[in-house]
Design a protein that fits this description.
This protein has helices at 27-35, 40-46, 52-68; strands spanning 7-9, 18-20. It is mainly alpha-helical and 98 residues long. Strands 1-2 form a two-stranded antiparallel sheet. Helix 1 crosses helix 3 (52-68).
């Protein structure tokens, strides 16, 4: 059995976040516990319906997700959010600030 057999995505659970199959435990939750210093043994004691293979599958899923990300180094990305735009009046022209 591969880690992909242990992780599933279902829009009905946690808004489609990857979860351990047969549970409502998100991959990100398990990874976060590990990042906060929990051992695999502590996770398995607290969430006794998980297996060691489930915890490993969560790490493998997170690893694959990170490997697929694309990062652009040295490039400024313009902020196009509404909050960064100058306020406008009803006609659509920029209002003077200050």
């Amino acid at each position: 059995m591969t880690w992909q057999d242990r992780i599933t995505v279902d829009p009905q659970f946690l808004v489609g976040k990857p979860i351990v199959k047969g549970t409502r435990i998100a991959v990100e939750f398990v990874v976060d516990l590990l990042a906060r210093g929990w051992s695999a043994e502590q996770i398995l004691e607290e969430y006794n319906h998980l297996t060691r293979e489930d915890v490993q599958a969560c790490l493998a899923d997170a690893s694959d997700t990170l490997k697929s990300e694309r990062v652009s180094v040295g490039r400024a990305v313009p902020d196009t959010s509404v909050a960064s735009q100058p306020p406008t009046n009803p006609s659509g022209t920029a209002r003077p600030t200050g």
